[in-house]
Design a protein that fits this description.
Structural class: mainly alpha
Number of strands: 0
Distance between the termini: 73 Å
Strand content: under 5%
Largest sheet: none
Radius of gyration: 22 Å
Low-confidence stretches: 1-30
Oligomer: single chain
Helix content: over 70%
Number of helices: 8
Length: 182
């Protein structure tokens, strides 16, 4: 009987402590400050919050130098383009209308180009060839714009993905400038 009471007391204490030390309290701390490098980069983008959230989705970011931040940003854009390509393929496998099919085929081509350019940029990072990074990221962003334009003002199932790729590529362009501008 004593063991049951001790167990019950320990369980109650553990529950009480867990209420006060909930993981969400640590992640929503209002005193969070991005690193100086992340602030420098994100202040040059059109959406500071998107930039910070995107970069900090990778655990390497808090202590990243410009090289690691380049891998983080280009890797994020690369993965996003790849995921969008898979999503487009899934949509094409469903029964979509003829115009939707045409628009999605165009987007598939656009995202294949974006994916290829981001893959090339990643290879350039590996070989420490930095001069073309911004151009490659710009081409990938233009591909997302082209995909959005393919829908000719009709509702696109890819609007959010296009917007996000453009935002990620914008981050890549700014990070690229850390290597090419004094």
């Amino acid at each position: 009987m004593v063991t049951y009471s001790s167990y019950s007391l320990c369980l109650s204490l553990l529950l009480a402590i867990s209420i006060f030390i909930h993981p969400s309290n640590a992640t929503t701390n209002s005193t969070f400050q991005p690193s100086d490098l992340v602030k420098e980069v994100c202040n040059q983008t059109s959406n500071f919050t998107f930039c910070v959230d995107s970069l900090y989705s990778d655990p390497r970011t808090p202590h990243a130098d410009r090289y690691v931040l380049a891998y983080v940003s280009f890797g994020s854009a690369y993965r996003h383009a790849d995921a969008t390509l898979h999503y487009i393929a899934m949509l094409l496998n469903n029964n979509v209308s003829e115009p939707q099919n045409r628009f999605l085929q165009r987007c598939s081509s656009d995202y294949t180009k974006a994916f290829s350019k981001l893959q090339e940029a990643y290879g350039d990072l590996d070989s420490e060839t930095f001069y073309s990074l911004a151009k490659l990221a710009g081409i990938a962003a233009s591909s997302a714009n082209d995909c959005q334009a393919a829908f000719n003002g009709t509702t696109s199932p890819l609007t959010t993905m296009n917007k996000n790729l453009k935002g990620l590529c914008e981050i890549c362009v700014v990070v690229s400038k850390l290597f090419t501008e004094p």
